[in-house]
C-alpha cells in the first residue's frame, strides 16, 4: 500500500488549491515529492507534510466525497497532476494465501 502526504498548518488547516474553478486537496506520493514542491513554492513554508490517514479523512469528510489532486512534483506548478479518488488512495493489497 502506498503512503500519501498532504500539507497542514500548525493550526490544523489543510492546504487546498483551485484548479480550473474546482477546489482540491493536493496529495503527494512521497515525502521527497513534498520537499520538491515546497522548495519550488516558498509560500508553503508554513505547512508541514502529514501522512494521509483514512480515519482522518473519514472523521473530517464523513461521506468520503473529497476531491484530491495527486500532484506531479516534477512540475513546480501545484496545479499539475491528476484527480485521484479517496478509494484509490486507500486501496488494500490482496493478502497472499497460504498454499
Short description:
This protein is of the alpha+beta class and 99 residues long.
| Count of extended strands | 6
> Unreliable runs, pLDDT <50, ≥5 residues?
93-99
User: What share of the residues lie within helices?
Assistant: 10-25%
Sheet with most strands: strand arrangement = 2-3-5-6
Distance between termini?
23 Å
Order of helices and strands: EEEHEHEEH
What is the SS-derived class?
A: alpha+beta
CATH architecture: 3-Layer(aba) Sandwich
Strand fraction:
25-35%
Mean pLDDT: 83
General description of the model:
The chain is of the alpha+beta class and 99 residues long. The chain has three helices and six strands. It has a single domain, classed as Trna Endonuclease, Chain: A, domain 1. A four-stranded mixed β-sheet has the order 2-3-5-6. It is globular.
Question: What does the secondary structure layout of this molecule look like, with pairings?
Answer:
Blueprint: E1 5-8, E2 17-19, E3 22-27, H1 31-40, E4 48-51, H2 54-60, E5 68-71, E6 81-84, H3 86-89
Characteristics of this structure?
99 residues; alpha+beta; Trna Endonuclease, Chain: A, domain 1; four-stranded mixed β-sheet; two-stranded antiparallel ribbon; 3 helices; globular; disordered C terminus
